[in-house]
Amino acid sequence: AEVFDIDPDHVEEQVTRALADTSMFASRFRECAARALLLPRRDPGKRAPLWQQRQRSAQLLAVAAQFPDFPIILETVRECLADVYDLPALVDLLTRIRSRKVRVAEVETASPSPFAASMLLGYVGAFIYDDDAPLAERRATALSLDTALLAQLLGRVDLRELLDPEVIATVVGRLQRLAPERRARDTEDVDDLLRWLGPLTVDEVSARCRDDVDAAAALDELVASGRAIAVRHRGRDLVAAVQDAARLRDGLGVPVPLGVPTDFLVAVADPVGDLVHRFARTHGPFTVTEAADSLGMAPAVVAGALDSLAGRHMVLEGEFVPHQDREQTQWCHSEVLGQLRRGSLAAGRAEVEPVSPQAFSRFLLDRQHVVDRSRLTGVSGVAEVVEQLAGHPIPASAWETLVLPTRVRDYRPSMLDELLSSGEVTWSGHGAIGRADGWIALHLSDAAPLTLRDADDVELSAVHERLLAALDGGHGLRAPELRDAAATDDASMQTALWELVWSGRITNDSFSVVRAALNPTRSRPSTPSHASRGRAPRLRTARLSSRYLAGVDGSASVPPLLGGRWSTLRRQHIDATTQAAATCDILLERFGVVTKGAVTVSEIDGGFSRIYKALTVFEDSGQVRRGYYVDGLGGAQFAAGHTVDRLRDEVDVPREQRTEAVLLASTDPANPYGAAFAWPSQAESGHRPGRKAGAVVVVAGDLAVFIERGGKTVLTFTDDVDVLAAAAAEVVAAVRMGRVPRIHVDQVDGRAVLSTPFGRELSAAGFSSTPRGLRMNYDPRMG
Predict the structure, then answer these.
(1) Residue 761 domain flag
(2) Digit-coded pLDDT (tens) for 159-196
(3) What is the distance between the alpha carbons of residues 179 and 182, in angstroms, rounded to a whole number?
(4) What is the CA radius of gyration of the chain?
(5) Residues in CB range of 516: below 8 A, 6 or more apart
(6) Quick one: average pLDDT of 717-740?
(7) Alpha helices, H only, 283-412
(8) Range of 546's domain?
(9) Are residues 85 and 218 in the same domain?
(10) Phi, psi of 438 (to 5 degrees)
(11) What total of structural domains would you count in the chain?
């Protein structure tokens, strides 16, 4: 019932604020703008396509949103609130509920009402088709990318590796009318040929005609009828369309023959620009020297014309094809470059056959340094892992048990502490998990503004405010200084401090405080309160008798949960386009192949639609390729060229060299299941796997085993006895090394554990039998 407990004095403001992010507002804005004639049609006699209306409406809305008093925006809001919603009636109803004139009763029904059923159907539809929404109906975050700025961030246009030479030859053949299907069929086509390409010799025209067409006779007929003129330029006899008489006279100084009608001798505005533009429109990438030699102009004149055309975005400067003279810049017409890019991308996509999910799983394990051949070592290895996983929240209990030790061969906790104390790495909290865990993300300090997420909303108490005010100076403070600033007892300060940690506002220069929060030997504070994700963990604290112990230097020590230096996480304002470009780089480095599932599991602001738009610009610049690389993941897959080659190598790996079984945390980014791939179906059991804190999976190409925290739920997804034996060995090794503290298995796939093949393999690998099943605990003496 508290859902309907809304203040009627503020409901209008809340509805109006939420209205701006709805598809209804965008569609109503389009209708209002069309009625106001702000969306003109190219042809008044024809209807504009709906996609075109949406596109123009989105562009208008992006500009009008900067002016809240824009009349069309006000009319759209009025129409939504008055015509679509009955806001006065809602305010009246909420007022009567507040005054107790209307009673709200909670009733549990067997099925939803027709009204609620339609809302549920709409919610499901919006969830499924969210990324298929038209441009005008997407959220503002998807429209905030500046493609020009993004291209600037990616560097100068260099498409030498992207443009396919065969595609260039094909496109140029069509533009030059040399392709068999584009050759002239009769005199009319020859006339069109002269207007399209400009002055040509008889031999050049003949090369562009079909075998049954006499080029010389066709040209003589055109000259005789006055539709073409014969001219001489640079010692060559040429035939040109009569429409080019003034351009050739004023641009090249070609004498005009007698008999040309006066209408064709009127001076044109920019004869040189017209000639250079036609050359660019009918050729592939070229240099100034090539254009000057072909047109018979001075290179400086051609360069000036190209600069003018570039200012109007008609030609582009860059490096498009390999050229002997690297000092000369290359030019290409924008429409021609579009054809070359589209053709090259299509050819590149067609070359790649999709690999199996098993091959991609092995590729991902190798890319994230999980398998033996790619594991890292030392402090530098820890820093490399942090760089690859920067900003990705993982349960704190998994970082030093299942994530870092799996990737760094000789990992020790002191390595992470060294990076934190030196300021090279920082960590941030992203919500509590139960009472003794929470989501933690690691960041490289230099790039932290690009990987830090916004702090979660939490109601700040007076203690919170005093702590934040004390840390606002930008320098780290220890617990005694914070205790004086908070002016409260230690238990309250500790609880408030960790609530700020889980909301993402403060951090520490050591990971020891996180380890202390996970240590089950500590006691808990007596005053828990709410944090950002559910209830804040009732964090353990030292006993009162040992809270303060005299140090060697006479100073008092503090509980482990309050150790180290505390500081605020400062977030800088980053341009949305720069943020999107950096996010794409991080995702490409982390996953190799970026898919919708990878973006979803990473909880990127704006979702896949925003990242898709940025990756499309990456593709246009040649830095990534889009294709169908992994079978079953759809066509919206992006990867760098060298990554695709490495992915293809996994197909040819001999079976004996493949990774047979690897144990990972279920939430590990190296686990593709529940992210890129859906969880395999498990019909025999009523349980479903998930990316849960404390859960582990064993991946052997395919997903082999899922084990929930402590062995509460165990699911198997293969009948291969060898794979199950390897999975059991991985589980036993993880418990013996302390990566998983304890596992007690009663059932596997909903059946008694010892009646299942995996249960028998666990028993053979070292699990002990109990009256209820199998059990194994970590024993430090065995480590």
Answers:
(1) yes
(2) 666 678 888 999 999 999 999 999 999 999 999 999 99
(3) 5
(4) 34
(5) 522, 540, 559, 560, 561, 563
(6) 90
(7) 288-295, 299-311, 334-351, 357-367, 378-388, 396-398, 404-407
(8) 461-570
(9) no
(10) -170, 165
(11) 4
